[in-house]
């Protein structure tokens, strides 16, 4: 007997662990945005339009340091290029019969964590359904946007009396990058990661932070292309 | 609304939609694997994340041990929780929590 397809509510319930994780990170993004001089509306717009945590923090750093618009956009786009691999990996697991009629809407929510949760449920034998993907994605998206608004309304000065909390939230970004790095770490990717890291250090020390980021990404991607 | 911010957000957001939705809509998983494009795509993500981790941690590295200890503690927490739970969100929150606690304990 075939198991029933999971519903929208099943997806919403499956998003709860992601919601619990997203709320504090999004809150710290909202606080960081107002600290960097952006309004609550601008913080809301970044979360609503970009919806990619680590690159949003980077957007704040680039925009507040006066980096050129196209270089900032290119850096964010390069950073999120990894998402192009999530759809094929998910649909390969979902099977040839899986519907993608509404993918233009639900696939927008395929963040690192939503992808991980969806792929995990398919690997555990659950059937694929677009309703489930809508529920899973919507819960995470709502938490991200609402957390951002709460943090932005609390404001950059909200944590002045709490230096330890402020320091902890400030460490959220390197912690997030390190955790993402660990999640994709493999023997195959080690040369790419090492070359990118060394390129960043060399570029930052000789040319500056923004150039270091571009140089590191380019060096790592070229190292990946060169391998067989 | 800051015009530069809106431009960057719209460009990055549009690219995000293309990266996330287009491969699903076109069922690119049915295409033949291999080639330089696949190598480029599979390398760019890890390269970007490695770059951004290094860029984020570099300013925190200092010879002042009192300032460095919370960074070390937070980093170890991320490594430990990720090894135990394989959770990006859990490891991130643990790293931030331990870093904040270390700052509080060191006064």
TrEMBL record, chain A:
Statement: the UniProt record of this protein carries the keyword Transmembrane helix: yes
Source species, domain of life: Bacteria
Keywords: Cell membrane, Membrane, Transmembrane, Transmembrane helix, Transport
Subcellular locations according to the entry: Cell membrane
InterPro entries (UniProt xref): Brnchd-chn_aa_trnsp_permease (IPR011606)
Keyword Cytoplasm part of the UniProt annotation: no
Topological relation to the membrane, as annotated: Multi-pass membrane protein
Transmembrane segments: 12-32, 44-63, 132-155, 161-185, 192-225
Major subcellular site: membrane
Pfam (any one): AzlC
Family to which this protein belongs: Belongs to the AzlC family.
Xref: PANTHER family: INNER MEMBRANE PROTEIN YGAZ
Protein name (database record): Branched-chain amino acid ABC transporter permease
Organism whose genome encodes this protein: Rhodobacter calidifons
Organism placement in taxonomy: Bacteria, Pseudomonadati, Pseudomonadota, Alphaproteobacteria, Rhodobacterales
Automatic annotation (TrEMBL), chain B:
Transmembrane stretches, start-end: 36-58, 65-82, 88-106
Superkingdom field: Bacteria
UniProt keyword terms in alphabetical order: Membrane, Transmembrane, Transmembrane helix
Protein name according to UniProt: Branched-subunit amino acid transport protein AzlD
Organism: Rhodobacter calidifons
């Amino acid at each position: 007997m075939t198991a029933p397809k999971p519903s929208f509510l099943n997806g919403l319930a499956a998003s709860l662990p992601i919601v619990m994780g997203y709320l504090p990170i999004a809150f710290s993004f909202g606080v960081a945005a107002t600290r960097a001089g952006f309004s609550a509306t601008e913080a809301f717009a970044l979360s609503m339009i970009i919806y990619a945590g680590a690159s949003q923090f980077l957007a704040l750093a680039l925009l507040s340091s006066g980096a050129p618009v196209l270089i900032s956009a290119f850096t964010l786009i390069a950073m999120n290029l990894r998402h192009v691999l999530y759809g094929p990996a998910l649909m390969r697991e979902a099977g040839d019969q899986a519907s993608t009629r509404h993918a233009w809407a639900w696939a927008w929510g395929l963040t690192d964590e939503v992808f991980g949760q969806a792929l995990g449920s398919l690997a555990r034998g659950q059937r694929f359904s677009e309703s489930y993907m809508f529920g899973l994605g919507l819960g995470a998206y709502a938490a991200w946007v609402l957390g951002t608004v709460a943090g932005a309304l609390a404001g950059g000065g909200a944590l002045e009396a709490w230096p330890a909390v402020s320091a902890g939230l400030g460490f959220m970004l390197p912690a997030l990058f390190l955790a993402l790095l660990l999640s994709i770490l493999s023997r195959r990717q080690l040369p790419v990661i090492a070359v990118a890291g060394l390129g960043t250090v060399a570029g930052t020390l000789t040319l500056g932070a923004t150039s270091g980021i571009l140089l590191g990404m380019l060096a790592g991607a070229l190292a990946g292309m060169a391998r067989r | 609304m800051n015009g530069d911010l809106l431009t960057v957000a719209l460009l990055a957001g549009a690219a995000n939609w293309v990266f996330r939705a287009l491969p699903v809509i076109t069922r690119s998983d049915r295409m033949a694997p291999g080639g330089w494009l696949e190598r480029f795509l599979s390398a760019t993500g890890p390269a970007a994340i490695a770059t951004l981790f290094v860029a984020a941690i570099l300013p925190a590295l200092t010879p002042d041990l009192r300032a460095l200890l919370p960074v070390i503690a937070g980093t170890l927490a991320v490594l430990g929780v990720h090894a135990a739970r394989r959770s990006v969100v859990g490891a991130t929150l643990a790293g931030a929590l331990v870093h904040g606690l270390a700052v509080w304990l060191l006064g």
